[in-house]
Fold this sequence. Notes:
The complex is a heterotrimer. Chain B is mainly α. Chain B is built from 3 helices and no strands. Chain B has one domain: Helix Hairpins, CATH 1.10.287.3510. The longest helix of chain B is centred in the C-terminal third of the chain and has 31 residues, at 57-87. The longest helix of chain C is centred in the last third of the chain and has 29 residues, at 85-113. Chain C is built from 4 helices and no strands. Chain C is an all-alpha fold. Chain C is flat, with a radius of gyration of 24 Å.
Amino acid sequence: xxxxxxxxxxxxxxxxxxxxxxxxxxxxxxxxxxxxxxxxxxxxxxxxxxxxxxxxxxxxxxxxxxxxxxxxxxxxxxxxxxxxxxxxxxxxxxxxxxxxxxxxxxxxxxxxxxxxxxxxxxxxxxxxxxxxxxxxxxxxxxxxxxxxxxxxxxxxxxxxxxxxxx
Amino acid sequence: xxxxxxxxxxxxxxxxxxxxxxxxxxxxxxxxxxxxxxxxxxxxxxxxxxxxxxxxxxxxxxxxxxxxxxxxxxxxxxxxxxxxxxxxxxxxxxxxxxxx
Amino acid sequence: xxxxxxxxxxxxxxxxxxxxxxxxxxxxxxxxxxxxxxxxxxxxxxxxxxxxxxxxxxxxxxxxxxxxxxxxxxxxxxxxxxxxxxxxxxxxxxxxxxxxxxxxxxxxxxxxxxxxxxxxxxx
Lengths: 166, 100, 123
């Protein structure tokens, strides 16, 4: 059951990620990205991180994608025109860097598997909201408070950048 | 129980797709989406390793990453917006005043 | 633990997706299609549409959406806080007051700038 769900989510998310970077129209890219986010939310559920799955749907698939779509509509973009430079070169470079990194990560994954094999069986974590919350409000209290300053800076920065005329 | 390595491989593939997207696409908003994709791949890795280590700290980290990503989206898209107002383009190849 | 408790949601998602897919597919297979200029036009309450549907929207939509994200994050932080509120006692209350207080500064700034007022021209 878990294996089946994992494979469905994995394959769908990879397919839609590829579509996202290949689609000419940015609106289609944004829609593909939503599917990737939702698949990742299911993966989080499979990993036992229920709270983060909910946050993923609320924050990413909801809020951030709304913002993306708004900006795309706002700018009224037509389909992307290829820059007169060397698009072929960029495509080749991008895909070769991507596949090279995948190979690298696969090797690292093998190393991790070898290391974790010696560590013994995987422990099961109760990834519920309470466990996350207890850590967040005790051990990670300072980062939590600093986050509010980050959000404050984001509010002011976005208003200043977007609000100024000319 | 799905093996942790499988999640790591999925995260790695998604991250690489994000990197490739940043290189291939010239539209600033799509590049931004690719960055979000990379952040999500990292989140997946964090959660997978957090489960495999039996510690919940990784999930708190992911929560903070999501917060940073939201703040980044708001400010970054505001930058793109003001870029478009000034230059009438969001093609990153044409924004090259700082390039020498 | 894990996905077992979510079987109901899974079934619901599957049924919803299947229903949507089947309905669209059936209407495409069974229905008769006559494409005319009027039918392909964007529907605008019956009158002829004026201008392109994809013209630029006002920047106010964007600013509202952006503020929504930030305060959405704030609300998301309130959920886990509410779960452990009883065990944290007054300490938890104070830390959340500090958090919300700092964000309140931002809210007041936005308010002063007039970004929340739809009619004004200040932004």
